[in-house]
Specification:
By secondary structure, this protein is α/β, with parallel strands linked by helices. The chain has helices spanning 48-55, 79-86, 106-116, 121-134, 151-163, 181-198, 209-215, 233-238, 243-251, 257-263, and strands spanning 5-15, 21-32, 37-41, 63-68, 71-72, 89-92, 169-173, 201-206, 218-223, 226-232, 303-305, 309-311. Bound molecules: adenosine-5'-triphosphate (ATP) and magnesium ion.
């Protein structure tokens, strides 16, 4: 089966002044099959959002390549490229506060993609009403402005805006973290239904490992700009290989507070290290309980293992 989305050594570095370079995304190679949900998980600051945005052309990449449906994506997206690819690739943004234009009504925000396609106004109104209902909002509220909605409601406006044009590929950047638990399940079910009915392919970004496991077919674990482990979501979750993945699994809060209290083995590995002016060697070396001399000199590459798994760690060579 041909892959739908592919990146090769994709990098996005930011110049942050005084000659300092922040390695937000530092060489990511991965593939997403058609109709697959790839979960991307990692701590805050690991570069998940930057990867998603760079992939669909919202950031110009520093180096590397990205492909969509077999063709290379432009190095730098022009306005025309954005229009062309927005018919195929959409993003549900992480921050529901800054991602909706405060001066546009919900009708205009959600209907924008259809207007670009030249859809008549009356049809836009009907389809916006339909999508607002599908994401659990009141269709009568389409003449309101974003500030009249809660964070969770805005997130759902963002979902409707991305889905209304029936894209093939959607980057879902923490699409449910701003939502109440009851609404989370509703949105997860909606994404799943859309995956089936539209044949949708998703990059599902979250820092909650158990959520990513539940939603995704495969997952990729990201640490400081690199992917350290990939594989079928359940296998990675229940049989983590990389020391960082193990750390994430063990520090993942257990939904049952009783079990969580009695677990008693919270690893304390300190904070994520800085992505500025990074040195050679494994990015996780400073926090790794199994660090070896070699890990501080050489950078481990992702190596294919059996069962469709990959691990970037010298322990598994
Ligand atoms: N426009 C920018 N300019 C400079 N640095 C940036 C920019 N965007 C992101 N960064 C930095 O890049 C790194 C990765 O950020 P990113 O937002 O991609 O992480 P994330 O994994 O999505 O985190 P979170 O879970 O908090 O959303 C961080 O150190 C961040 O400060
Ligand atoms: Mg993010």
């Amino acid at each position: 089966m041909a892959v739908l989305v592919k990146t090769e050594n994709l990098k996005k570095h930011f110049h942050i002044g005084r000659g300092q370079i922040l390695h937000a995304v530092d060489g990511i190679s991965l593939t997403i099959d058609p109709n697959e949900i790839l979960g991307l998980v990692g701590e805050s600051g690991s570069g998940k959002s930057t990867f998603g945005k760079t992939l669909i052309g919202l950031h110009t990449r520093t180096s590397g390549q990205a492909y969509y449906d077999g063709s290379p994506l432009p190095d730098e997206f022009t306005t025309r490229d954005h229009l062309k690819y927005s018919q195929e690739m959409q993003m549900i943004f992480q921050d529901p506060y800054s991602s909706l234009n405060p001066r546009m009504t919900v009708l205009d925000i959600v209907g924008e993609g259809l207007r670009i396609q030249g859809t008549p106004g009356s049809e836009i109104r009907d389809r916006v009403a339909d999508w607002l209902t599908r994401v659990g909002l009141n269709a009568d509220h389409m003449s309101r402005y974003p500030h009249e909605f809660s964070g969770g409601q805005r997130q759902r406006i963002g979902i409707a805006r991305a889905m209304i044009i029936e894209p093939k590929f959607v980057v879902c950047d923490e699409p449910i973290s701003a939502l109440d638990v009851s609404v989370q399940a509703q949105v997860i079910n909606l994404l799943d239904e859309l995956k089936q009915s539209l044949g949708l392919t998703l990059l599902f970004i979250a820092h909650d490992l158990s959520m990513v496991r539940y939603v995704s077919d495969r997952m990729a674990v990201m640490y400081l700009g690199s992917v350290v482990e990939t594989g079928p979501a359940n296998d990675v979750f229940f049989d983590a290989q990389h020391p960082y993945t193990k750390f994430l699994v063990e520090s993942n809060p257990e939904p049952d507070p009783e079990i969580e209290r009695n677990r008693g083995h919270q690893p304390i590995l300190g904070e994520i290290t800085s992505p500025v002016n990074v040195q050679p060697g494994c990015r996780f070396a400073d926090r790794c309980p199994q660090v070896m001399d070699r890990c501080r000199r050489e950078t481990p590459e992702l190596i294919a293992k059996s069962g469709g798994r990959e691990v970037a760690c010298f322990l598994f060579e």
